[in-house]
Amino acid sequence: MPAPEDKQRDKKLEDILRLIELCRAVSSSSVNPFEVDIKEKLLVLKKHLPDWNVIDVMLKDSEAMQQLVAIVKLQDQWIKHRASALFIDPLLLELKITLITKDELAESFAKCWHPIAQLDQLTARGLEKAFVYWRELVPFSERFKDQFGNYGQQTGLIGLEELESLSIFTKEEFESRLNAINKELVQRSDGKEIDYRDFIKGKDPEETALRGYLIAFVVTEGRATIRTDPLTEQIFISVIQGKPGDETKSVAIAVR
Amino acid sequence: MSESNNPPDAANPPTEAAAERASLDRKTRKAFQVLILQRGRNPGVKGWEMRRYLGKDYKKILEVLSNDLKSLGLEVHLVPGAEGTDDSTRFLLRFRDPPTLSEAETAGFRIDDLAVLAATIALVNSKQGRISRKELESFLKGKFPRWRIDYSVDRYIKRGYLDLDDKELVRIGWRTRAEIDERSLMTLILAQGTKTDAKK
């Protein structure tokens, strides 16, 4: 059983460690630095200081002091920022950003944007960097040997699990998007065939690719079918009413 | 122009004022060349470099240049340095008037990207100039798809609009300080909602 003195010393050391942790948490977030009561913490350090006789604990004590100094610096910045014209209540601003549209946000940005005018040119430093890069660049045939053997990486399929692991989709987001695009297809097609490319066309190539990807799942699940006109090569999509038929075929469609 | 190309007439030596004017013109041209050409990784020229190129009156010369550039829609802008001294101040050329949204789009900025940046700058400023990347992403997730947030934030950090420190705290980058009137941005964002309400 530990002696009462040891127990007391552990408790004091714990105080210091907790203080360091608190300061670190405040410095690495946007929490108000005035949440840390500097005076009280200094008194705690002062009270414990005569009891320390081990170098490691003394170092912890000085680290705590250093962290408190960092908090004082943050408090100084906090006051300066509050006094500046840039200060707006974060809650009010968050609410505003949530309420206004992306277009309005972009428009606000464009109205106060003064792009830098400059001629881009090759500098001696840039040239040196390019030379070093080129010199150290492994030939293409050798580049992926370690990872993929002698032939480099083959093109292949990317699954939903992989997309989830790459944080491109979350399960919920994917399901809700799938349902949304299926609903849109039902509404737009109104029981008839519609042009596939028109349907997947988004605001930009990225959105078009994303819609194409999602609609491939809708078709795979048997909720819609795709038909290609052999003469015009026009692709049509329509909703399947009732149970899907047994005849299935895999097709690759280039999305532009 | 033609007069200045002719050799000075021995009978009428150039006056002191004319010589001063010629020197100012020469220095203004030099200042423009220094500012327009990229030197280091980041655009702009520091105060101490300007003094070396143009002499101790460099600020006056830059004022003249800024005035001359008015007709081209450009201006000389100064960004105070971290030390707050004249030497650390960065001078650069920038558009005097903001571009339209469609002009911004033709320069390779999509509306979504601009919206992410606008929201981020406003949020960082409202949070005393720093916000953890996690907190920022979780806020933006309510308005933008996650992949777009990751892509845009990384891109803006790379371009200098945002700054990410080793504690994963997002701060305002040097390019934002140089290109964006942050105060107006905050005011415009707050006013946008009001305008929409008023229209309704």
Give a quick set of tags describing it:
heterodimer; A: 256 residues; mainly alpha; Arc Repressor Mutant, subunit A; 3 domains; three-stranded antiparallel sheet; 12 helices; 59% helix; B: 200 residues; Aspartate Aminotransferase, domain 1; 2 domains; 10 helices; 6 strands; 56% helix; elongated; disordered N terminus
Describe this structure in words.
Chain A is 59% helix and 5% strand. Chain A is mainly α. Chain A folds into 3 domains: 4-83, no CATH class; 121-156, no CATH class; 160-239, Structural maintenance of chromosome 1. Chain E (Arc Repressor Mutant, subunit A, Orthogonal Bundle). Chain A has a 3-stranded antiparallel sheet. In chain A, a hairpin with a 6-residue loop joins strand 2 and strand 3. In chain A, helix 1 runs antiparallel to helix 2 (38-48), helix 1 (4-27) runs parallel beside helix 3 and helix 10 (171-189) packs across helix 12 (205-220). Chain A is elongated. The N and C termini of chain A lie far apart (74 Å). The mean pLDDT of chain A is 81. With 200 residues, chain B is mainly α. Chain B has 2 domains: 2-95, Alpha-Beta Complex (Aspartate Aminotransferase, domain 1), CATH 3.90.1150; 101-193, MAGE homology domain, winged helix WH2 motif (Arc Repressor Mutant, subunit A). In chain B, 56% of the residues lie in helices and 12% in strands. Chain B has helices spanning 2-5, 16-36, 47-54, 58-68, 101-106, 111-126, 133-140, 146-159, 174-179, 182-199, and strands at residues 45-46, 74-79, 90-95, 131-132, 162-164, 169-172. In chain B, strands 1-3-2 form a 3-stranded antiparallel sheet. In chain B, strands 4-6-5 form a 3-stranded antiparallel sheet. The longest helix of chain B is centred in the N-terminal third of the chain and has 21 residues, at 16-36. The model of chain B is unreliable at 1-5 (pLDDT under 50). The chains are: A mainly alpha (256), B mainly alpha (200). Chains A and B meet through helix 3, helix 4 and helix 5 of A and strand 2, strand 3, helix 6, strand 4 and helix 8 of B.
